[in-house]
Amino acid sequence: MSSADAPAPEATAVEPEAEPTDDIRSGLLATLELELGEAIVESHLKPGIGLWVRVTTEAWNDAAVAARDKLGCTFFDFLSGIDWMPSPFGRYEVADIDTEVSLAEKVAAARAADRISGYAGGDTRFQVFARVVNVTAHHDVVLKCDVPEDTLTVPTWSRTYAGSNWHEREACEMFGIRFDGHPDLRKLYLPGEFEGHPLRKDFPLLSRVVKPWPGIVDVEPMPGEVAADGDAAEEEVDG
Amino acid sequence: MTLTQRDELRAYAHHATDARVNVELETEGMTLNIGPQHPATHGTLRIVAKLDGEQVIAAEPITGYMHRGYEKLVEVRTWPQINTLVNRIDWVGSFSNEVPFILACEQLMEIEAPPRARAIRTILFELARIANLVLFAGDMALQLGAQTAAMYAFRDREYVLNLLESASGGRFHPNFDRIGGLKDDLPKGWIDDTRAALVKIREFCDEMDLLVTGNEIFEARTRGVGIIPADVALSYGLSGANLRASGIDWDLRRDGGISGLAYDDVDWKVWTHPDGDCFARYWVRLQEIREAAHITEQLLDKLPAGPIMAKVPRIVKVPAGEAYVETENPLGAMGFYVISAGDLGPFRVKIRTPSFNNISVASWVMRGVYVPDIVTILASLYFILGDIDR
Question: Does domain A1-84+122-197 bear CATH number 3.30.460.80?
Answer without folding.
Answer: yes
